[in-house]
């Protein structure tokens, strides 16, 4: 009981400090995902670091059959999503909206885009190449990648996006239409439903906020 | 109301068909073809080619019902891909959708009737 109360009080104190901060400083995006703490000793004092959820290293094949890794996104803000080329339901709307973001920031090297195909059977690099060209993507700022099922579905979990092979879903795959905003430290800073105009507008705003942070 | 103000020449029946058609359009067509019938890049063609809609009026129900493969020229551009069919749609559903498309994106002022859908599904196989 005592512990609970302490937690409660400290939560109030903490939140009031937090409110105090947001009033005086610029708005910052939250850091999303589970976190852990790590203690280390600096100059004889113990300090506690927060370890945030990060996108782990990855390697996939892109639309030009070139290996794309997490290193290609070092020091960049990027937007990631999950789709497949013959998806008849949510993907066209999601990609139409992401295309608007791409067009706004085209040739801005601070920003990149990464679409993962969850149809590892059909979406070969050449299929992805044709899709990217027809969508209107003309530079390598937006990458379309494929990989082994285990790797693609595994990384989707790390982006906190639900993906599943499902015969009953339209096109054979069930997935969420989140556009996930990642900062240069590979931390998730926002997730926006790519089929919802209001949330896409929020992505435009948050992207600006995140770029100011850099 | 909106339909009346945009298209003063359409009958109440046509306007009703178009309103019902819009709801079905959102569910079945909009993701690819867009809320304004604008399509998406070279992936999915726009539905705003008034000449195409007029000249191929008879074929439209079959395209919605059974889908489409291969090359199609829209607004002077070649589109190639597969459109999935919508076999679950009834004749009246297709009549609603086509009335919406042909009067909103095209320049038709007529209802695409259920009778027209039924006959054209037989004529174009």
From TrEMBL, chain A:
Disulfide cysteine pairs (residue numbers): 87-91
GO molecular function, one term: metal ion binding
Residues noted as binding Cu cation in the record, renumbered to the chain: 87, 91, 175
Domain Thioredoxin per the UniProt entry, residue ranges: 49-212
Database matches in CDD domains: SCO
UniProt keywords, alphabetically: Copper, Disulfide bond, Metal-binding
The keyword DNA-binding is assigned to this record: no
Family to which this protein belongs: Belongs to the SCO1/2 family.
Protein's recorded name: SCO family protein
Organism from which the protein derives: Sphingobacterium haloxyli
